[in-house]
Amino acid sequence: MNENDSNPDITTIRVKLSDDYQDIVxxxxxxxxxxxxxxxxxxxxxxxxxxxxxxxxxxxxxxSNGLPYPENPFMQFQPxxxxxxxxxxxxxxxxxxxxxxxxxxxxxxxxxxSKLELTYDFDKICVYYVLTHQDLIDETACSADYCHxxxxxAFLDKQAEIVNSDFESYLLHQPRRLFPIPIDxxxxxxxxxxxIEILADFNIGQYFDSYCRNSYHM
Length: 218
Hints:
The chain is an alpha/beta fold. Helix content is 27%, strand content 22%. The chain is built from five helices and six strands. Strands 2-1-5-6-3-4 form a six-stranded mixed beta sheet, sandwiched between helices. Strand 1 and strand 2 (21-27) form a beta hairpin.
């Protein structure tokens, strides 16, 4: 990555898989925080080949370096000395100044873990990204936020292929099931069974629920 010491309006971070990477350029000269958020999502989508509107949750996480809240606004309610920047459905409540001054540092490198899920009504696919700073990654063991078996270009490309296919059209044409509110355990198990059946029909379950014992899904 190029160092941007000569241009304080530019920060470059790197997003990595085990065998690929993309540099993301953040231009702080933008007039609105939303412009920064949109640019990050668009550059990330270009790398993953998954449209930004499919992103349900996106989380960057890195060490807080011992800075407590409120000196570090990204440490609020966070355990284990971790700072988190969170996007929910393409929206981020953090202000541009806070992100610039207290979160991203030029040269930061984040490892990308992507997960697919079906929505509650089984009518859409949603995508979850967790980008963990490289300094927090165990090089030999998987964790809830990074799986060495799946965080590679081939796996991500298959996920992108599923998201960009007509699979959602199939989902939309399935009969909707009515469930009680609140949902009891019996209906939760029924929903999980139905999900497994749908994914098995297309032989894509392995791209939704990881086999890794330390994954998010176990």
